[in-house]
């Protein structure tokens, strides 16, 4: 065969083509004949070290797999080079051997100079990892390529540099360079827990003006309106309210306490670099409050060169906003980020003609500054500093409401919400010299939050001071297969609240300690942790959590999780959606120290199966997961005792939430991505008068997301088309049977579907324009406000919301990068 190759004009290691045949080749095929090294010369060009061995592979995924297999076999460290096609091993000969390590690497699918992988294992590798098995060891691998991956480190900032999707091959005289792409939302295959990494590309599929709108193209998180008067949105996950999900920013506590009702509006979408969404029990190093999972938001802070962006947005119903973001390196070690956001809603939107605004009017100013220091490679130090100030003013209620008049002179029903918020935080880390596996991290944050508000003739005001500190040490036991983290935390919450004439004050002081162990094997990862928190009002709380991942094959992954979480309920701040009503609030105290109530405690268990396969010659994946949450104690919000009453009390009996979800992602043809999902929820609780389904929770939900983009032109321009359909099944509504017939709600709501769509045009790498529509089906809840004609009467209620309030709404926007 090599003789035939030479006869065709191409020199090789055994035969040389004749001069006439070589000269007869096309000009573009005239290779440099004198530069072709012999096999001996090729081996001499790279003199191997004593602990260096030939191992075949193609890409970054191969590198991770090879190094993981080596460490699982006892190597202290392993460094695989794609260019050299070798791995350098460091190990203790008393614990393992090169033979044992290389055998493990072969078992993982990678041929090496001592062992060959089985055909079945090799064929089971992802397509991008299928190296050429016939190339002799020591020769260059022409299939080498690299893909960008999101990396997660609890002590450092998330550094996610999204590769642009739909990349057009870049052509030159000598060949073709293909640039890969990364999914806009990717399920991490490395994490023991079920973790989704969401990057900016996903967020650009919709309007995404703030965090509450960042999940419209995500099937895991449910976004719902919670009040017809204030227009607030809330997230739900695993069938439970937002308060049971830990919402963090830069891995620091963020949307909690008094910020629960409106905090989603305080993180602008254009500020977000990435989101990490964890379903089920998260790491104990981040605190004790997570029950259904964690949503962490990372702000823009990574740039190799200065980049300033301007975003302008407006919808057709009087809302406008502007964002300015600037990320720039100061020098080799320092970088900074300026973030500025302003929005205003000025139009009187009343699409259902009930005399009430469908969303509040008002303005927000939001500014942040981030400063980053990175000298990890030399001194081992890195630090991140941030400061943020927010001023938000909203007015809602009847269109005729005049906020200039005193409350007692108003003829119309009005709502006013004024919020001021200030934050400052720092995260500093140190990596020990000569020990890249050992580090120390310290996080600190102070938050001041103030809210002054009124709902008709009812006043609610609150102040919150929070200081949080978290110290984490990370190292290994023997080798990197055995990692551990240990540390201590401190949380102080000072609350002052006023509702009507009742003044409520409390201080929560919570020192805590924790430890977490990670065991990494060839096909499995186990993360087990526990923490003890000494709460001055809730007593000592023990929080164990465990996550386990087993890779049957690189394409088939099983995950199991279990864990405990606890939290103190802020019953007034977390239920403001019911303040715009004439329900009287009643707290049935039960020997607790927080509003007379005990803390909430729950156990969460989960299992998921991830399967990747080829469909239409392209990558496809299905994920199915089941989670159950069992409450040991819970503060129930009872809307059924009376339509004129809102009652809080501790659970006596059982309360549980079963959640099943299956999601299928595939690409039928180039640049066209499809995401299909189905969710089933069974959420029930034992209320005072018996067990029943929790209201406003649909048992069945369906989801479809379609995304298509054209190839990029020579200027980097392309079109993008995105559409999302959410189908929501019927929901149980609170009991209103004691109301007059005209003010009664049905037992169950109707099912409905909401369609959103967006078209965007990237003219080049710096200018992007977009046009979109929300709720294009124009389905809205009729009579969303009970007895809207008499807002000061006994039957008025603006909290009975289960569907959109506004009909179709259209928007336009422009992104410019300087």
UniProtKB/TrEMBL annotation:
It is found in: Cell outer membrane. One of its GO terms (cellular component) is cell outer membrane. Keywords: Cell outer membrane, Membrane, Receptor, Signal, TonB box, Transmembrane, Transmembrane beta strand, Transport. This is TonB-dependent receptor. PROSITE patterns: HMA_2 (PS50846). One of its GO terms (molecular function) is metal ion binding. Residues 48-113 form the HMA domain. It is a multi-pass membrane protein. GO terms for biological process: siderophore transmembrane transport. SUPFAM superfamilies: HMA, heavy metal-associated domain (SSF55008), Porins (SSF56935). It comes from Chryseobacterium elymi. The lineage of its organism: Bacteria, Pseudomonadati, Bacteroidota, Flavobacteriia, Flavobacteriales. Gene3D superfamilies: 3.30.70.100, TonB-dependent receptor, beta-barrel domain (2.40.170.20), TonB-dependent receptor, plug domain (2.170.130.10). It comes from the Bacteria. Residues 1-21 are annotated as: Disordered.
């Amino acid at each position: 065969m090599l003789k035939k190759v030479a006869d065709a004009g191409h020199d090789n290691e055994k035969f040389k083509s004749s001069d006439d045949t070589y000269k007869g080749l096309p000009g573009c095929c005239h290779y440099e004949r004198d530069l072709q090294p012999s096999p001996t010369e090729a081996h001499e060009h790279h003199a191997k070290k004593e602990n260096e061995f030939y191992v075949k592979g193609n890409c970054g995924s191969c590198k991770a797999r090879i190094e993981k297999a080596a460490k699982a076999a006892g190597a202290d460290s392993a460094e695989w080079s794609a260019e050299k096609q070798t791995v350098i091993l460091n190990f203790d000969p008393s614990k393992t051997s090169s033979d044992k390590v290389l055998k493990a690497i072969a078992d993982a699918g990678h041929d090496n100079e001592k062992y060959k992988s089985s055909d079945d294992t090799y064929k089971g590798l992802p397509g991008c990892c299928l190296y050429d098995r016939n190339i002799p060891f020591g020769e260059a691998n022409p299939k080498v390529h690299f893909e960008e991956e999101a990396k997660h480190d609890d002590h450092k900032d998330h550094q996610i540099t999204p590769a642009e999707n739909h990349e057009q091959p870049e052509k030159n005289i000598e060949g073709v360079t293909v640039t890969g792409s990364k999914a806009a939302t990717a399920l991490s295959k490395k994490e023991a827990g079920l973790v989704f990494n969401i990057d900016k590309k996903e967020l650009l599929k919709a309007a995404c003006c703030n965090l509450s709108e960042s999940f419209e193209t995500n099937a895991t998180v449910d976004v719902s309106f919670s009040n017809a008067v204030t227009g607030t949105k809330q997230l739900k996950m695993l069938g439970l309210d937002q308060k049971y999900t830990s919402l963090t920013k830069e891995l620091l506590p963020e949307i909690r306490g008094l910020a629960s009702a409106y905090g989603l509006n305080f993180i602008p979408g254009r500020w977000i670099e990435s989101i990490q969404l964890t379903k089920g029990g998260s790491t104990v190093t981040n605190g004790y409050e997570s029950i259904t999972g964690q949503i962490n938001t990372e702000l823009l802070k990574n740039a190799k060169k200065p980049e300033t962006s301007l975003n302008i947005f407006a919808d057709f119903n009087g809302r406008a906003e502007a964002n300015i973001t600037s990320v720039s390196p100061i020098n080799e070690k320092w970088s900074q980020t300026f973030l500025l956001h302003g929005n205003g809603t000025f139009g009187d939107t009343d699409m259902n003609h009930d005399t009430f605004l469908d969303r509040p009017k008002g303005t927000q100013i939001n500014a942040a500054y981030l400063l980053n220091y990175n000298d990890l490679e030399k001194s081992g130090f890195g630090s991140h500093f941030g400061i943020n100030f927010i001023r938000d003013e909203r007015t809602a209620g009847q269109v005729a409401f005049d906020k200039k008049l005193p409350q007692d002179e108003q003829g119309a029903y009005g709502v006013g919400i004024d919020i001021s918020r200030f934050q400052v935080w720092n995260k500093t880390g140190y990596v020990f010299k000569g020990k890249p596996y050992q580090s120390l991290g310290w996080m600190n944050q102070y938050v001041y939050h103030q809210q002054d508000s009124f709902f008709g003739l009812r006043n609610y005001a609150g102040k919150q001071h929070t200081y949080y500190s978290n110290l984490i040490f990370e190292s290994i036991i023997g080798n990197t297969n055995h990692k551990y983290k240990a540390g201590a935390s401190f949380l102080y919450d000072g609350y002052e609240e006023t509702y009507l004439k009742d003044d409520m004050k409390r201080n929560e002081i919570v020192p805590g300690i924790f430890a977490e162990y990670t065991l990494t094997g060839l096909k499995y990862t186990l993360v087990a942790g526990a923490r003890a928190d000494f709460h001055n009002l809730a007593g000592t709380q023990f929080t164990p959590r465990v996550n386990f991942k087993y890779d049957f094959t690189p394409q088939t992954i099983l995950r199991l999780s279990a864990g405990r979480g606890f939290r103190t309920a802020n019953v007034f701040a977390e239920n403001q959606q019911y303040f715009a009503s004439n329900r009287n609030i009643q707290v049935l105290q039960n020997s607790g120290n927080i509003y007379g109530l005990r803390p909430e405690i729950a156990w969460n268990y989960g299992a998921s199966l991830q399967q990747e396969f080829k469909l239409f010659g392209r990558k496809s994946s299905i994920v199915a997961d089941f989670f159950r949450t069992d409450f040991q104690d819970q503060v129930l919000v009872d809307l059924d005792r009376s339509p004129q009453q809102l009652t809080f009390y501790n659970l006596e009996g059982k309360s549980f939430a079963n959640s099943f979800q299956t999601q299928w992602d595939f690409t039928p043809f180039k640049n066209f991505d499809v995401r299909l999902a189905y969710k089933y929820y069974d959420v029930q609780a034992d209320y005072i008068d018996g067990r029943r389904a929790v209201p406003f929770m649909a048992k069945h939900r369906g989801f479809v997301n379609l995304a298509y983009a054209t190839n990029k032109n020579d200027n980097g321009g392309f079109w993008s088309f995105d559409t999302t359909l959410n189908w929501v099944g019927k929901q149980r509504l609170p009991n209103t049977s004691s109301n007059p017939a005209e003010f009664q709600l049905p037992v169950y709501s109707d099912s409905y579907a909401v369609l959103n769509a967006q078209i965007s045009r990237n003219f080049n790498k710096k200018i992007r324009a977009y046009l979109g529509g929300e709720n294009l089906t124009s389905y809205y809840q009729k009579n969303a406000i009970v007895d809207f004609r008499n807002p000061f009467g006994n039957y008025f209620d603006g909290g009975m919301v289960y569907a959109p309030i506004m009909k179709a709404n259209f928007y336009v926007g422009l992104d410019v990068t300087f």
